[in-house]
Design a protein that fits this description.
By secondary structure, the chain is of the alpha/beta class. It contains 16 helices and 20 strands. The strands form five sheets. Strands 1, 2, 3, 4, 5, 6, 17 and 18 form an eight-stranded mixed β-sheet that branches. Bound molecules: flavin-adenine dinucleotide. Flavin-adenine dinucleotide binds at residues 16-22, 39-42, 47-48, 50, 52, 57, 59-61, 66, 112-113, 143-148, 190-191, 389, 392-393, 428-429, 439-440, 444.
């Protein structure tokens, strides 16, 4: 006898992912009176801040900027303790938000979505979980995260290793003690750069395997004084507005001059003044920092000088100096003592450009030159960014067309929000939106609001289906590429370009036109009655 099929649950809206995006989407949809369910693969809410628990995990955007702005009461009531919030503090904040707005009961945890198929005739989606549960929904929102599908390096032998292995994005919930152990860290992107100084404090011996040297700046993190917090809270509304209209979602003075038109002493003083202030100050000092190689090189060399000034051993310092990509074209990092960590006698740097990793052995890590015996390996090897979590779901639109087919040569989207042929499917901070090139909180709120407002608009008209047109999608995708090509970003082999995943099309996936310009464009579309979107009823 075959088991009876699970009854299909019919809802108005289904959201995949219970991070900052999914939770706010739930709140907004509920506000529209839509019966909404959120499906989350993890065993708790929080997304990024649930999964990434490695030592030193912390946000590179200031806490008072990396927080929801939709509720003035929430932003007044919540107190942050540090300039840059730690992972546990952000997770506590997310739980506070979920408690405050009664969101927990809308989320089904430990539920991974396996497929989403559009039913043309009814204008609705069938969503199936890995456990085989099925949902029938009108609206489908992928709040699956830009950095939520982790990746291991493509080296043989990981399963052979006899010691402990960790991935920064799947860190155990209980504390990991490295005291007295020989540790390898593979990867020196944002997560590695945050974790390495803290692992070095405990480990008997730490070997860092670096494929790409990255640019990092000191976070200069500090406790948030009551006075500073109160001051920001007094001007919070204005500050939020400035963030929304800025380039990166972080208010900074607008550059007016080329880096090449000021004399070197003045330029040096400018870089000193923004060094260690925030994530974007170095990038936004001059109008051409990210478009002109010579202008960019002035910033890159300034950082290299800083590295040489911190790291005692000249050879190690040179290995840590980035030379294979323009400054800012890979995710810039903020650190707390990263470069100084290499002055410890117990810390060693291996340049994988010179001696590539060949395999993981039973006892450690082997390069083309030597085998390094270790007790623990930490993989800080990043993510299949922007498209990885979408590609992991079997998404099929009109006439059963797989999204994977449509995106075979790279993602095409309208505004990073929708894909033609996939009606009522929305992505939060999808490829083609400012997303990872911004303070993500600003982008997440803008996207969620746009989706909720669009759905509300459709319903007011008596329509149930919203779909971007092919023309609008092509126009936007061309625009994203043109703006990207105007900059130095495509020159880097970065995860922005998909370069860290073998076989992934090499396309600059984010929109670098700025969050302010992007928002203004979306607002204009809404004001003009949504040109580029087709509305219909089923
Ligand atoms: C270590 C780290 C540091 C970061 N630092 C910053 C920073 O300084 N500033 C900044 O702006 N941004 C930062 N980010 C980016 C961060 O991801 C975003 O700021 C934000 O948290 C994204 O929220 P989200 O809800 O869109 O996605 P996520 O938080 O990634 O949540 C997506 C959720 O979807 C779930 N999911 C995915 N696929 C499925 C499926 N098939 N079925 C069910 N559930 C699924 C995942 O389990 C996850 O919980 C950082 C990211 C990382 C990893």
């Amino acid at each position: 006898m075959t088991a009876p099929a699970t009854p299909v649950r019919r809802v108005d809206a289904l959201v995949v992912g219970a991070g900052l995006s999914g939770l706010y989407m739930l709140h907004r949809f509920r506000g529209l009176g839509l019966d909404t369910v959120v499906l989350e693969a993890g065993s708790d809410i929080g997304g990024t801040w649930f999964w990434n628990r490695y030592p030193g995990a912390r946000c590179d955007v200031e806490s008072m900027e990396y927080s929801y702005s939709f509720s003035p009461e929430l932003e007044q009531d919540w107190d942050w303790t540090e300039k840059y919030p730690t992972q546990p503090e952000i997770l506590r904040y997310i739980h506070h938000v979920a408690d405050r707005f009664g969101l927990h009961d809308g989320v089904r945890l430990e539920t991974r979505v396996a497929s989403a198929h559009y039913r043309d005739a009814e204008g609705r989606w069938t969503v199936t979980t890995e456990a085989g549960d099925r949902y029938d929904t009108e609206q489908l929102v992928m709040a699956t995260g830009c950095l939520s599908t982790s990746k291991l390096p493509e080296i043989p032998g990981v399963e052979r290793f006899a010691g402990r292995t960790f991935h920064t994005a799947h860190w155990p919930h209980e504390e990991v003690d490295f005291t007295g152990r020989r540790v390898a860290v593979i990867g020196t992107g944002s997560s590695g750069i945050q974790a390495i100084p803290l692992i070095a404090e405990q480990a008997a011996d730490l070997t860092v395997f670096q494929r790409t040297a990255n640019f990092s700046m000191p976070a200069n993190n500090a406790p948030l004084s009551e006075q500073a917090q109160a001051e920001r809270k007094r001007g919070y509304r204005e500050h939020r507005e400035a963030a929304r209209t800025s380039g990166f979602g972080i208010p900074v003075p607008e550059a007016t001059r080329s880096a090449l038109e000021v004399d070197p002493t003045e330029r040096h003083a400018q870089y000193e003044s923004v060094w260690g202030r925030n994530l974007v100050g170095m990038l936004t000092s001059y109008t051409d920092s990210i478009v002109d190689p010579a202008a960019n090189e002035t910033a890159a060399e300034f950082v290299r000088e800083k590295i040489r000034g911190i790291v005692d051993d000249p050879e190690t310092a040179e290995t840590l100096c980035p030379r294979d990509h323009p400054f800012g074209t890979k995710r810039p990092c903020l650190d707390s003592g990263y470069y100084a960590t290499f002055n410890r006698e117990t810390v060693h740097l291996v340049d994988l450009k010179k001696t590539p990793l060949t395999e993981i052995t039973e006892h450690g890590v082997r390069t083309s030159e030597a085998e390094y015996a270790v007790d623990d390996i930490v993989f800080a090897t990043g993510f299949d960014a922007m498209t990885g979590s979408l590609a992991a779901i079997d998404i099929r639109g009109r006439a059963g067309r797989p999204l994977a087919d449509k995106w075979a040569d790279g993602p095409v989207t309208h505004l990073g929000l929708q894909v033609a042929g996939f009606p009522n499917l929305y992505m939060i901070t999808g490829p083609g939106s400012p997303s990872v090139l911004s303070n993500m909180m600003v982008s997440i709120e803008q996207h969620v609001d746009f989706v909720a407002d669009t759905v509300a608009h459709a319903h007011t008209r008596g329509d149930t289906v919203v779909e971007s047109t092919e023309e609008a999608e092509q126009g936007w995708t061309d625009h994203v590429r043109e703006v990207g090509d105007y900059t130095l970003y495509p020159q880097a082999d970065s995860w922005y370009m998909g370069s860290n995943v073998p076989g992934k099309p090499r396309v600059f996936m984010a929109y670098i036109g700025g969050v302010g310009a992007y928002r203004a464009h979306c607002e204009q579309l809404a004001a003009d009655g949504y040109p580029g979107f087709a509305f219909s009823a089923r």
